[in-house]
Amino acid sequence: MTSGQFPHVRVEGEPQERGRQYGEQARERMLRSRDAYEEVFDRYASWSWDKVTEEPMRYVPPIHAVRPKYLREMHGMAEGSGLRFEDVLALNVRSEVMFAAKARQALSRPVSGAGECTAFAALPERSGGHMLIGQNWDWLPHSFDTVAVLEARQIGRPAFVTVVEAGLLAKLGMNSAGVGLVTNAIVTDLDRGEPGIPYHVLLRSVLDSETVTDVLSGLQAGFRSSSANYLLASADGVALDVEAAPGDFSRLRVSGPEDGLLLHTNHLLQTQPGVTDVSLWAMPDSAVRLQRARPLLARAISRAQR
After folding, report:
1. How many CB atoms lie within 10 A of CB 64?
2. pLDDT, tens digit (0-9, with 9 covering 90-100), for 139-173
3. 156 exposed, middle or buried (CB, 10 Å; 0-12, 13-18, 19+)?
């Protein structure tokens, strides 16, 4: 089944069974994703696919320490799609490879090119009684042929839906407990590819959370490998933005809405001692998008309320 132009994948059951169903239903797109990222890794890090699939194995112990069921799910995805487990794992730690390389590049010279994501939340008092959350997602062109809408029913955790590149555990989405997630890539000098909890594992942990408080606990469950921004909202009217640099709980900064709106693009808005943000070198349009987003969002909400 398709959802718009993207396949709608529905899975349920235990982790490995869900993964197997996901792999079977999205097999073609997972294979395309693997082939596309072979080229991407070569461009960003000058790594062959053999090197790519060796390096992510260093992330297995940190993942197992906090979310072992995700490893079982990835094994199922490999079984269902015909890929190797190492291939699926590599897709799920792609940010740790790509953005570590991008950070090194940005520290030596500016990078030109298109930006990525502009994310927002609007509180119910600004949006006619409903919490709104959303983002655009400007990513690599091959994603048109790899994105799927994944809907999962789990045992003992919230059901969730995520718009995701096939082969990843999660990206942006929402769950049946009323938690919504949008996200922005960030690049700092601490993005060195050190083994820890990968970005896409943390995105999935957000969608497994019952409350925003649970989300914050999950983001501090262990050493994070990557910088990222997590913009969160819940059905009960709470919205928070969490800027995270690689490291432990001391590398998180939390902020709330301003005049009922919460916005973020691809650079840090709060100072973190000992962290050098290189995002504006890597994604130089981020500051302009942030400045434009607030009046455009306010205007769109005003029109919708008429």
Report:
1. 12
2. 888 999 999 999 999 999 999 999 999 999 999 99
3. exposed
CA distance 132 to 195: 35
Please spell the DSSP secondary structure of the chain, one letter per residue: -EETTEEEEEEEESHHHHHHHHHHHTHHHHHHHHHHHHHHHHHHH---HHHHHHGGGGGHHHHHHH-HHHHHHHHHHHHHHS--HHHHHHHHTHHHHHHHHHHHHHHHS---S-----EEEE-GGGTTSS-EEEE-----GGGGGTEEEEEEEESSS--EEEEEETTSS--EEEETTSEEEEEEE--BTT-S--SSB-HHHHHHHHHT-SSHHHHHHHHTSS-B-S-EEEEEEETTS-EEEEEE-SBSGGGEEEE--BTTEEEE-SS-SS--TT--B-HHHHSTTHHHHHHHHHHHHHHHHHHHT-
| Model confidence pLDDT, tens digit, residues 100-145 | 666 566 555 444 445 679 999 999 999 889 999 999 998 888 999 9
What residue type is 69 in one-letter code? K
Q: Which residues contact 56 (CB under 8 A, 6 or more apart)?
A: 86, 89, 90, 92, 93, 96, 97
The neighbouring-strand residues paired with 2 are 7
Q: Domains of the chain: which residue ranges?
A: 1-306
Q: What are the two backbone dihedrals, phi and then psi, of residue 119, each rounded to the nearest 5 degrees?
A: -115, 150
The topology under which CATH files domain 1-306 is Penicillin V Acylase; Chain A (3.60.60)
Helix axes 85-92, 94-108, angle to 10 degrees: 40
